[in-house]
Write a structure and sequence with these properties.
single chain; Alpha-Beta Plaits
Length: about 575
Amino acid sequence: MERRLTTVLAADIVGYSALMDHDRTGTIAALKAFREETFTPMLAAHNGTLVKSMGDGWIAEFQSTSEAADCAIAVQSAEKPEGIKLRIGIHTGEVVSDGDDIFGDGINVASRLEALAKPDQILLSDTAHNSLDRGNAASFDGGEQTELKNITRRLGIWRWPKGTGAGFAVNADVRPGIAVLPFDNMSGDPEQEFFADGITEDIITELSRFRWLMVVARNSSFTFKGQSIDIREVGRVLGVRYVLEGSVRRAGQRVRITGQLIDAENGSHLWADRFDGVLDDIFELQDKVTQDVVTAIEPSLRQAETNRARAKPTADLQAYELYLRAVSHFHLLTDADNKEAIRLTKLALERDPDYATAAGLLAWLHIQRLVQGMEPLDRGPKSAVAAAERVLLSDRADGIAKAYAAHSISMLARDLSRAREAFKEAIAENPNAAIVHMLASINLFLLDRPDEALQHATQSVDLSPRDPMRHASYLAQGCAFFHMERYQEAAAACREALSVRSAFVMSHLMLIASLAQLGDIDAARAAVADLKELRPGISSSLETTRLPIFTVPACAARWRDGWIRAGLPVEA
């Protein structure tokens, strides 16, 4: 017998028995026509091999997962005889071949998926989905974790057509899991075994009070009692991310309890400590140790989960790629690129509705339309604020996402104090992120705090001197300098901004006003001419000039006065 990794497609005719009872002759003829005219030719066209034919279903094998997915989609999309509907399951896994037949995980999982599928639907395992090329992977949605009968691990399941929903119960418990292994009795006294077991059971009970945490039951954890086993194997078998293990050692009336919290995915230690006590009252000591251990490890678990979430903003790699593509268009500042960035960001959020960074970018994209004088899309500012609210309510939002959202709340909802609090959190979480300091600087300018605004804007440039977004950092410096009537420095900052992004309208408007306030009217008029080449119909009363940056009371009259003196057209 030979073992190999392969992709298995399992297909089944829906309601075959009922069709046969209703019209045996017609069903046999229809099934034969479908098999000979559609299924078999499509299998051959996609380099598939028929392994089994079971009257109302088939098992086929493919060397390429992408070809298996293409074949399944082609079969489901093809015109079929009346009454013929298929369910299809696909899995990439190990099989064992015995002559012309195959057995094993590949067959079992594919068959389970086929049984779960709705009529005309294809279900794909996460293993198979991970093997697809980008184009094919984008044809499927879902990815929810669920359990299959007689399959030891939970599987992510993907669906075609997209949006058809799950016809199966998904595993809704996505909480991080922890197993508390029986504490080892290191005393050499069998009578102390009950004390070690009592400590373990009490810790399990107390940890179960935290609703955000899934704690493996005592009976499951205690199957490992007395065994020497790799922690990563414990995590795999029990389906948990974290394992707590420990020991109890007694010398006379003194007891020492040690414990360590381990990440079961990589074996790293997250926390370790020891507790000493006296056996005057064994139950009192047991309660104290339990409380101390639980109080110590719960924050460690939360921090580990926070770090995990920050390192992995989305579990969906396709969503992450869509987000990165959106960012590349965001930097180009054109109407077409902005629309494409919005489209890509929405696709990312369709794949992962809780992807906070993508929601934050979507909010900022709507601001970009306003800043650049483009026609609003969807609900314009309302869309931006709605996206920002999603971020601020999200448990998955990192500092970058919070900064995006706070910028939208600041610029569009004009809730400056709330935005300031969000920026404080963002800076605390990402103190070395240039973009966070840049956006925080703008918020401080709107709050009439130019000194602090200048500090953050300068820090943003220092942190990332070659950043593609540094034009906005220079612009923020220009705002602060203008507020403080340091027009020479404001003009220099605006020129720096334009050297990075010459198409950014606000930089032109700020440069014009700064030069005019300096009294250099010729230079200001030349700057107006440059802006008109970029935006022929611009005037100082257009929507761009009504943004919060240009309405700060300490500066508003000076902005407008500068534009008028430079000859920028003014509408009544």
